[in-house]
Write the structure tokens for this entry.
Amino acid sequence: MVAKGRLRPGFLLVFRREFDRFSRRRLLLFLTTVLPLLLMGLLAVVFSAGLATRLPIAVLDLDGTDLSRTIIRTVDATPDTAIVRSVGDLAEGRKLILSGEVRGLLMLPRNLERDVSGGRRPEVVFFYNTQTMTSGNLVLRGVNSAVPAVAAGIRLSLRTAEGQPLEVAQAALAPIPVQVNPLFNPALNYAHFLLAALLPSVLQVVIVTTMAYAVGLDVETSHRLRVLRRLGGGLWPAIAGKILPYTLLFLVVLGISDWVLFGVLGMPLRGNRYVLILAGVLFILADQFIGVLLALLLRPMASAISIGTLLMAPAFGFMGIGFPRIGMNAFAYGWGQMIPGTWYLMARVDQTIRGTPLHLSWKPIAVLFFMVLLLASLTALRLKVIRARRRPRSIPQTIAEGAME
């Protein structure tokens, strides 16, 4: 008989025990809820502007004419750049770029206006730091859009002054116009794809390390493992009772972050939200089973946590956001293939920014489902091995030990 008010050994007992553990181990509660929410809030604040604008650049004007001043005013008027300094030589401009005070240096050569008026093609030079790819490309885009616009206006004026009709002059300057249509993210908003990738990257590190820590608390020693098995009425019910509370908590954390992204920051949600939820559940379960496997395979618990961090911390670099995966080498591409976050990110981008139909976005969902099945099977195999090692010893050996006592 079981005492009144107490649960029988089984799944529910371990499930309730895990929630009770949060009040005793504040670190565990911090890892599962407070830390990911703080990190996601920080990232949301950092990228809430969505687009870097008015990046500072310096100018070296060696011409000092009306044309050079017009170019300076046009570059300063673009949304990407703001001219904040005027330097006297290249050495001063280089020092400003290296110090990070400015993001680029625009040099206007001598005799710029004379060469343009004479029909020649003088070179306007722009220096920028290619190590800072995002800011460097933004200031380069601002200069590339401003300077040709001024030059084209001057050449158009010269041609019309010579008697050419306006339509003929325009056709001569741009014989083959190109119509550019940015897809999915026409505003080039960095929050739309950076936050969509950063949040899963952070969360999967938290999930794997938390599960390695939580499961490691009960499987690090043989005694703790026997206690867990008795509480759960078996290893599988016990492991399931340990995993589910964290699954629910991580779903809440992911739901809160998505509410901030789609509700507060106004990110697009053009696809099927139920497919997005399904992908999120599979993503969390796959990462949880990775943490569980590490805890079951590695001793001590600190080793499982360290290996989990080593596997998941570089995930952002292999998920194809900062650098396209098609250009990666075989090692980086393979690593990205094995990370659940890569496939969740594909499904996430499909169902948020692109609005991809379901029949075209089934692959990442199928891969995540396969990962969950594979990792669950490996966990079951490891539990079977552990259970075989913990079988009762033979009767003669037990009798002999009892006689010795």
